């Protein structure tokens, strides 16, 4: 599996590696405001298993596990640095045994069919080489009635850095179309820090 992972790039936030990647993870890990609003929107079921793609340093995973003592999480990230940081975060929370975090990429989730109640991705989907394939794989992993949530930095965020990182409307058009093709109905949500699309697995 690790031989198939994408290589780190010069941007340490893309696939964090080495000392700069560790620093990028530390920077990302300091702010969980986007993840708090994403969690509110996701509104996970009690005892849900949530799968996060590209979890980075693990802020959303931490919130998911802290919110419900019976929740479980699983997920993939291609960065060994991020997998290590996220695992440490969940260990500090005392919740490591409720987490199955693996090295991996969107589109090749190493989890069985109908494994999760929710699949979520925050500030990562624009980095995936094949969004359509990634969404089809997310649907495979979702139980019927489970939800997918794709969030990315909002163009209307109060934070300048997030506005700078916002995707053009054409990307949202493509993302919405890809979601619709796999899941059917799609809803778009303008949150404070992120724009998000949600859909339900038939
Ligand atoms: C900007 S960080 C966001 C991390 C985290 N979701 C957050 O909100 O703080 C992007 C993350 O996506 C991961 N990533 C990059 N390419 C990916 C891919 N093809 N599949 C899954 N994750 C990927 C990176 O390793 C990195 O952890």
Labels describing this entry:
globular; 7 strands; alpha/beta; 23% strand
- Ligands and ions found: S-adenosylmethionine
Count of structural domains = 1
Strand order of the largest sheet: 3-2-1-4-5-7-6
CATH class: Alpha Beta
Low-confidence stretches: none
> What radius of gyration results from the CA coordinates?
15 Å
**Which H/E pattern describes the elements?**
HHEHEHEEHEHHEE
Give the strand content.
15-25%
pLDDT averaged residue by residue: 95
Number of strands: 7
Main sheet record: 7 strands, mixed
CATH homologous superfamily placement: Vaccinia Virus protein VP39
CATH architecture: 3-Layer(aba) Sandwich
- CATH level-3 fold name: Rossmann fold
Q: Structural class of the secondary structure composition? A: alpha/beta
Structure report:
This protein is an alpha/beta fold and 202 residues long. The chain has a single domain, classed as Rossmann fold (3-Layer(aba) Sandwich). It is 38% helix and 23% strand. The protein has helices at residues 18-29, 33-42, 59-67, 80-93, 131-141, 160-165, 169-183; strands spanning 49-53, 72-77, 99-103, 116-122, 142-153, 186-190, 194-200. Helix 5 (131-141) links the parallel strand 4 (116-122) and strand 5 (142-153). Helix 2 crosses helix 3, helix 3 runs parallel beside helix 4 and helix 5 (131-141) runs parallel beside helix 7 (169-183). The longest helix has 15 residues, at 169-183. It is globular and about 40 Å long. The two termini are 30 Å apart. The model has no long low-confidence stretch (mean pLDDT 95). The site of S-adenosylmethionine has 23 residues, from strand 2.
């Amino acid at each position: 599996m690790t031989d198939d992972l994408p290589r780190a790039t010069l941007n340490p936030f893309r696939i964090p590696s080495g000392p700069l990647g560790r620093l990028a993870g530390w920077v990302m890990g300091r702010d969980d405001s986007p993840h708090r609003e994403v969690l509110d929107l996701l509104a996970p079921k009690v005892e849900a298993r949530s799968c996060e793609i590209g979890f980075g340093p693990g802020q959303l995973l931490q919130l998911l596990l802290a919110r419900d003592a019976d929740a479980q999480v699983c997920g993939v990230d291609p960065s060994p640095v991020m997998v290590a940081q996220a695992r440490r975060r969940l260990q500090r929370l005392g919740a490591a045994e409720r987490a199955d975090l693996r090295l991996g990429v969107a589109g090749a989730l190493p989890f069985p069919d109908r494994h999760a109640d929710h699949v979520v991705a925050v500030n990562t989907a624009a980095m995936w080489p094949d969004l359509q394939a990634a969404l089809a794989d997310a649907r495979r992993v979702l139980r019927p009635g489970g939800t997918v949530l794709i969030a990315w930095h909002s163009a209307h965020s109060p934070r300048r850095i997030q506005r700078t990182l916002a995707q053009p409307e054409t990307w949202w058009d493509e993302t919405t179309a890809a979601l619709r093709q796999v899941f059917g109905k799609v809803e778009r949500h303008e949150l404070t820090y992120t724009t998000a699309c949600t859909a339900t697995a038939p």
